[in-house]
Design goal:
single chain; 294 residues; alpha/beta; D-Maltodextrin-Binding Protein, domain 2; 2 domains; 10-stranded mixed sheet; 11 helices; 35% helix; elongated; disordered N terminus
């Protein structure tokens, strides 16, 4: 059986920059497609997914293995823009889960999709502070965010003060695009304004290829603050070392995540169906993702 749609290298171009993790996920062969003959041969369904999905998708794969005995799923996580470029250069995979529609539409235009993309989750941005930053009260005992809106605005404004080290994602990445939208909104708000936007921009010391790079630098104390997804601040490996401060609701932006098939097999349909199912949505919700956008 042939699991993949496209000719060319399947994993090597991706592994040059992605960490691949394989979950043994089981799935019953169904239907009459020719691809089904090899459902239990151990060939994984390869899912290229935005870096911000890594924890949630690993947990989702565990649940998927219980629901579908027999098949395997492999994940390659990175910035959606890098995954899309790999697909356009011939790398073969079975599913693409992007952190925005911009990358998905570009993949669609390039002719690499085998099915109609669908929204499956949403996310929000946060300002991420290292818990030992000078902006937080010295008597803070945990990583809880400030309670009052006035304190939230004060903390966010402090990020733009001279000497602060800020890390953000590259502008071509989805989180980089969302970051630009957020800063544009804040630039026009009287509580922040152009002075805030200019100050924050001048404090940027690094631009990362994906959101996990942003989170890692803040968690390690290599930067005072960054802009990331709310879900990344909840990751167990960093939650005790960072404080997530949400921008005012009317200024924040919503990240919309689409998913699409890259090859036409029953196993691909089953995986995407599981992501969209009530159980899949519940798992994503436990990791802080919101429902898909209408």
């Amino acid at each position: 059986m042939r699991l993949l749609k496209h000719q060319g290298p399947r994993l090597l171009p991706i592994l040059a920059f992605c960490a691949l993790s394989i979950q043994a996920c089981e799935s019953q062969a169904a239907g009459n497609r020719p691809e089904d003959d090899g459902a239990l041969t151990g060939r994984p369904v390869l899912v290229l997914a935005a870096a911000s999905l890594s924890d949630a998708f690993e947990d989702l794969a565990t649940a998927y293995s219980r629901a579908h005995p027999g098949a395997q799923v492999a994940f390659a996580f990175d910035g959606s823009q890098r995954l899309r470029v790999q697909l356009e250069h011939g790398a073969e995979a079975d599913v693409f889960a992007s952190a925005d529609w911009r990358q998905m539409r570009a993949a669609e235009k390039a002719g690499v999709l085998a099915g109609e993309p669908r929204s499956f989750a949403s996310n929000r941005l946060v300002f991420l502070l290292h818990r030992d930053t000078r902006f937080l009260p010295p008597d803070a005992e945990d990583s809880s965010p400030p309670a009052s809106q006035a304190e939230v605005n004060r903390l966010i404004s402090e990020i733009a003060s001279p000497g602060t080290k800020i890390v953000v994602a590259l502008e071509e990445s989805p989180v980089g695009q969302y970051t630009d939208e957020l800063l544009d909104n804040m630039n026009s708000d009287p509580n922040f304004g152009q002075r805030f936007a200019v100050g924050l921009s001048s404090n940027i010391v690094s631009r990362e290829t994906n959101v996990r790079g942003v989170v890692q630098k803040v968690a390690l104390g290599e930067a005072d603050a960054g802009i990331a997804y709310r879900t990344d601040a909840m990751a167990p490996q960093v939650a005790s070392r960072v404080v997530a401060v949400e921008p005012p609701e009317h200024l924040n932006v919503t990240a919309d995540y689409p998913i699409a098939a890259l090859s036409d097999t029953v196993q691909v349909d089953q995986f995407i169906g599981f992501v969209l199912s009530a159980e899949g949505q519940s798992i994503l919700g436990r990791h802080g993702f919101g429902p898909p956008q209408p």
